[in-house]
Amino acid sequence: MNTHRFRWVTPASCFCLGVFLVSLSLGWLLPAEYGNENGPIEWLQIVVLGVVTLVSISALFQTGLSPARRQLFAWTSILWLLNIARELSWGRVFYPNGTGGFLRLKDIWFGPYVYPTIAIILVAAFGYFFAKGLHRELVPWLKQGTLPALDFVILIVAALTADMIEHRSGDLFGIKIELFEELGELAAYVAILCFMIDVVLNKQFRHNQPLYVFKRRGRWI
Q1: For 215, which DSSP code?
Q2: Which end of the chain is more exposed for a tag (fewer CB within 10 A), N or C?
Q3: 34 lies in a domain?
Q4: What is the mean pLDDT of each successive set of 10 residues along the chain, which is 221 residues long?
Q5: Which residue in 68, 64, 219 sits closest to 136, CA to CA?
Q6: What total of structural domains would you count in the chain?
């Protein structure tokens, strides 16, 4: 394995590590209500995912990337938008039930159309993914491209931590279990943001692109 392909320290990865460490302590300081559905932490997650989406789309304008790689990174914006919709409970948060909660999805007028629409979007997105040959760009990128290792490690650790808090922590966090879970998810989303900033905007991650990403005699090879 070529260890020089992995960069551990970048401004984005340092910020990501800081957010991860701070989130561990914030859980003991913030009110438990901050972790509720439609609470401040969840809305902060949505803001972070929104920025991730913008960074992904900005790949289309990065001339230092090959056309296929621009499309690949921009294509991920579909996944981030779907994640935003999931964090909004597919629109449920805009329909309070008057008792502090929200209407069930099936009781909202568009509820029956949500999952069929998601299925159509995913089929169309992955149809485009394979039709445009983006899968042939993904594998060389993972094998030969320069990757932000710390961002990825923090993403995995934060996601696993959030899952363990939700399903395997017992009464360790008491009434703050949802808060710690949401903070773990927030750290994971920040890791995704930092990962995308590095691979899309940071020129350090273009040095080891495969040869075909460079233009020669007017053609991409």
Answers
A1: E
A2: N
A3: yes
A4: 69 90 88 90 96 97 89 96 95 88 91 96 96 89 84 93 84 86 94 94 69 45 44
A5: 68
A6: 1
Q: Which of 47, 62, 12, 52 is nearest to 200 (CA)?
A: 62
Spatial contact of 5 and 147, defined as CB atoms under 8 Å apart: yes
Longest dimension (CA), the chain: 67
Specify the amino acid at residue 108. I
Output the six-digit token pair for 9: 């320290």
Place of tokens 């920025």: 51
- Quick one: CA torsion of 43, 49, 51, 55, rounded to 10 degrees? 180
How many angstroms separate the Cα of 183 from the Cα of each of 17, 165, 188?
A: 13, 10, 9
Predicted TM-score (pTM) of the model is: 0.88
Nearest one of 196, 204, 190 to 157, comparing CA atoms: 190
Length of the chain: 221
